[in-house]
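Quick one - inputs below.
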Amino acid sequence: MVSTGNAISDGQPLPRVAILGPFGTYSHEAADRYFGPTARYNEKLEIKDVFHALASSSADFGVVPQENTIFGSVVDTYDALRAMGRGYIVGEITLRIDHCLVARTGVRLDEIHTVLSHEQVRNYVDAIALISNQALGQCRLFIAKHLPTATTERTTSTAGAARALLDRPHGHAAICSRVCTTLFQGLEVLREAIQADSNNYTRFYVLARGPDVKLPMNRPRPSESHRTGVIRIIIRQTAANTSSSTGIQDALAMLNTSISRIDRRPLAGVPFDFVYLVEVQDEQQGQHRSVPEWKQYIETKVEEVLKAGFSVDLIGAW
Amino acid sequence: MVSTGNAISDGQPLPRVAILGPFGTYSHEAADRYFGPTARYNEKLEIKDVFHALASSSADFGVVPQENTIFGSVVDTYDALRAMGRGYIVGEITLRIDHCLVARTGVRLDEIHTVLSHEQVRNYVDAIALISNQALGQCRLFIAKHLPTATTERTTSTAGAARALLDRPHGHAAICSRVCTTLFQGLEVLREAIQADSNNYTRFYVLARGPDVKLPMNRPRPSESHRTGVIRIIIRQTAANTSSSTGIQDALAMLNTSISRIDRRPLAGVPFDFVYLVEVQDEQQGQHRSVPEWKQYIETKVEEVLKAGFSVDLIGAW
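Output:
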């Protein structure tokens, strides 16, 4: 059961988690898998609003999409990270984007004559966060095979398709995420993973107000096979052209750590100066470092790069 | 004067240059500055169509936006580059995105009562290629100061605003690129660079059908202060996690060359495998290598990385 703010407190104040809304999105589902019912969720209209909530301390944690395996990096998240002051990345969670066929409890597949889904893409973030422009397209094979005579109808959001079922007669179904069946009473999943492409995953960052905010102890922890850190490096092209050791290749070499992702965004206001967001991983085989040990290790590396004259800081470790 | 296909041939067949259309976009302006009147321009609706034209040999060259200093990398261009087979990047050109106030010849600034502009953003590529969602916004200060009583009106494209002036009475002006005044007879630039932000540049790649296609000898060459190469590296995360020398950091270190840009895109069909597009620059101070010398130098480096087991190739040098 997904919490939207009605979870029962165990005496401790529930952590406030800002998510990219509306409720029922995959960001909501990711947050729920990470924090479970031990959190109070707060839906935000845009990714930057999640970061604002952390900066103003109106949220303790935030969950934002970082990249999707089809659409790539989420530009709005990277643009917020390049300017992030107080926030800190404390975790990650990856979801397979499964589209489900959902209907009112008791409705059979052969009764469905109308399928509701969100296909309209308002902007690039929508495309990545909701993967909504693919929902009907990706499920067309399923519909053609199992519901050949059904008509399709567009709704304004994924959750909107699920909510609309409550006011509709039997025979209506919605394409949406599994989390939607837990938002509204009386719905159930008829068929799961009805999309054609199973290579559709979205990876999310879990953010905290700051590096020292403690994660809830009783959260259901995802399996952790590696330690990850995110390092922010600013490269000024003018400087890079005049000196021999201020290029991104020098900063990366000095880190001397396994790199799993490099992303580049323009530095606001200065043409062709860049911010690199670099994800590093623990190279230590077998026994992994504890999070504090790993954080200290990366901080030492970052300090070395800083001493060499780079604008660099650690903006996350887990 | 910008050519749209009416240029006079000097006996040699004119190179066919595919651009991101419609005519009047900044891609058109960039192509015109690079090739001048010695080319036959062919407008394409989408970036991928420019690449298709090169792959099918229906164009000799192509001009596509690579990055903008406000919006960042152009995802559609990088997605085409990651899959590019025959094409090759042979040059670059950077334009400052200046919005001009354009009117019919003879119209004075104090006569303007209506300003036409393209503000609608259809998609992310529009946002970067046309910078159109900023046109009115960026020029609001100018309008407030110089045309405080003017009303604004939206058109479907930048060139559309300019074209519409021909059918309008005196008193109408358009916000568009300078190139638009050369597309239609009877228009002139009333004021130049009316945008608030002067840090708005777009950098374009010039592509050829293949590495050995010769650039027109009489093209107006932009000043060349450095040699650049673009290297494509595929990193499979599964492999990177099991071996100690197949991470992107190892490939970059082996290149042992100054790196000016690193961009990452998902590898189609394989979750969390990536394609890196890496721009390198000649480190040699003072006397620069010739293009063939530089190309050979980079090819040697790429060969070393290839021998170490990486999927890597050179997709441009100039």
